[in-house]
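>> received
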Amino acid sequence: MTFAIIIQARMASSRLPGKVLLDLAGRTVLSHVVGRCRAIRNADVVCCAVSENRDSDIVAQESERCGATVFRGSELDVLDRYYHAAVSLNAQVVLRVTSDCPLIDPQIAEKVVDLLIKEKADFATNNLPPSWPHGLDCEAFTFSWLERAFNEATDSDEREHVSPFMRRHPDARIVNLEGPGGKLIDQRWTLDYPEDLEFLRALLSELPSLPQIPSMATVLEVLKKRSDIFDLNRIRTTTRKVKGTDNRNRNF
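>> returned
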């Protein structure tokens, strides 16, 4: 069984253009994401599924520099890009990660994949409903369901994103990794806005750098001591709601 981690990435971003190449503690955002994904146990390959548009050439180059395999595909039909990336990797199980989550936790991601396999499910995630900080979200699914989505999805949001078809399908066996919940679900550890960039830069300056990978618990300890950092992107913090899809499933 080939277990592939596929990170979707492109240069364009309506809220924060070029955000995957912005500097965080001396490394690009993408470098943090790839480095953490490469630490996920039992992964056979880490691949960046990058837009085929020329403005994303630099993203593909950075992906390779970080040690990831690169697949180039459709800018807007991300499901098409993702499916053909999985085909090229001969993947049977796929973990989906977005490239704006530089604090993705390898141990939590491992548990999502383990849950998929243990429960013999079709789709596993950790945000149905959200119960972890926003930025630790990930989802795992079988290639057969990715292929079904590719062949059957017709709605624009199902093509622009990867998993809405699977999340909504009545035949899909879906499991969720429950997190701590409570106030943690309102914390933003992802990168969409300038305030998030300020937050992440300040936070990472207080954390060990790669190859060390601070866990969620370590991050929380820092934020507990440094309320000034915690407050930097609170203006962008809102309780997440999941209705068929979630706010991690946007075009990227």
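>> Confidence is low (pLDDT under 50) at residues 241-251.
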